[in-house]
Give the backbone structure.
Amino acid sequence: MRGKNRNRVGTVVSHLLPGADATNGVVEYEIHVPVDANVTLQSETGPIHVEKLRGDVTIEGSNALIDALDCADGHVHVKTLNGAVNLSNIRNGHIEIVSMGGDVTMTGVSGPFVKVNSNSGKIQYDGDFGAEGQYDFSSQELACVSSRPEFAANDR
């Protein structure tokens, strides 16, 4: 659809045809958007991969593997039931991740607000917490693991 000074891609829906299963009925979409576009993606089981975006990104998936890399200056919101979440090189963003059972791995993620809540998945953070910002990691059943480079500030 086309609105005032905006382009919008509406909902794209896929479903399995009779006789197909999740293995032989795979459909892959590659969608290119402006770097500052706000993007919302949903998938039940298929993987979701986003990269090099500067707008707000919202991703939801039941068992979907979710990868986001090289994004900056926007909000990144992720919700998953059991799918793994991998964030890499996300800078200066407002990041919120909620996962019931999927593991969450973050490498080089920084921003003024980084929050991860997992019921039973592992949370792993590898990077510098930065000079400022609020980092909140909580897991009900498993430990949160964090590491930082040796050159990181020691005042945290």
Summary: The chain has a mean pLDDT of 83. The radius of gyration is 17 Å. The chain has one domain: 35-147.
